[in-house]
Every structure is written in structure tokens, then in C-alpha cells.
TrEMBL record:
Lineage top rank: taxon: Bacteria
CDD domains with a match to the protein in the record: 4HBT
InterPro entries xrefs: 4-hydroxybenzoyl-CoA_TE (IPR050563), HotDog_dom_sf (IPR029069)
Protein name in the entry: Acyl-CoA thioesterase
Organism of origin: Hymenobacter saemangeumensis
Length: 139
């Protein structure tokens, strides 16, 4: 997905604030899930939702206001039953240079029991369709 950075994304130094990287990664995850048939409404019907245990950002290149960025997702890990996962988001400058990575480790939460759960088979299958994480990928 491509985005154009906004004034609200900037810090006092004139570059993208740390939490904006996480916001773009989260938006990319939500939109991608929705495009694959797992909208927020569908998750509410299934009574499950994603939760994060860890989020880590590596900053490589500065991003400024009004820049076009591209955010992708790569699957780093997925448990056999699909209940736990790790996704690495690449955030790229318009010229293709990797500006940052946002790594998230998560699982699926049963919203009624408030406990971890195994997702429906079609959600696990969709997760397995994500491109595999390639540490040196520069696309």
C-alpha cells in the first residue's frame, strides 16, 4: 500500500515521528485483512481479534513531510495452528530504499473468553499466503 505522509506524522525535528511508523504498519495490516475478507465487522462476527505481544521498529532512512511511502507485509513466523504469528512490515521511500522495518508478534484473542484462540482455517490459510520474510529484501 502507498501513503503520503502528513503534517500530523511529523515530530519537532521535521521527520516522521516514531509512532507514525507503527500507525502505517497497523493500517496496512487492517486493510490487507479486510481485502482478504476479514474486515473489522467479520472479526466482530467471529468474536476474535488480533493482539500484539511485541512491536519493534528499526529506523534506516529519514522520512519527511509529504513523502510517498510504501508499506508491505512479510510473514516471519506462523504457528502450525495459526494462533501465533510474526509479521515484518517494510516501509519504503518512493525511490525503493528501505526506510524502516516494523516487526510485530501477535496472536488471536477470543473476545468473549478473553483468552488466546485458534483462528478459523480460512484465516490461517490467508496468513500462509503472505510473502515470506526475506531479511535482505530491498523492493
Amino acid at each position: 500500500m502507498t501513503y503520503r505522509t502528513r503534517w500530523a506524522d511529523m515530530d519537532p525535528n521535521g521527520h516522521m515521528r516514531h509512532s507514525a511508523y507503527a500507525d502505517y504498519a497497523a493500517d496496512q495490516r487492517v486493510v490487507s485483512l479486510s481485502q482478504a475478507g476479514f474486515s473489522l465487522r467479520r472479526f466482530a462476527e467471529l468474536r476474535i481479534g488480533p493482539i500484539l505481544f511485541r512491536e519493534e521498529t528499526r529506523y534506516l532512512k529519514e522520512i519527511g513531510i509529504g513523502e510517498e511511502i510504501r508499506v508491505d507485509s512479510q510473514l516471519a513466523q506462523l504457528s502450525d495452528d495459526g494462533s501465533r504469528w510474526s509479521i515484518v512490515h517494510g516501509i519504503y521511500k518512493a525511490d525503493g530504499r528501505l526506510a524502516a522495518t516494523v516487526t510485530v508478534d501477535g496472536a488471536w484473542l477470543d473476545l468473549d473468553r478473553r483468552k488466546l484462540t485458534v483462528p478459523p482455517a480460512e484465516l490461517t490459510a490467508m496468513m500462509r499466503e503472505l510473502p515470506p520474510f526475506e531479511p535482505e529484501r530491498k523492493s
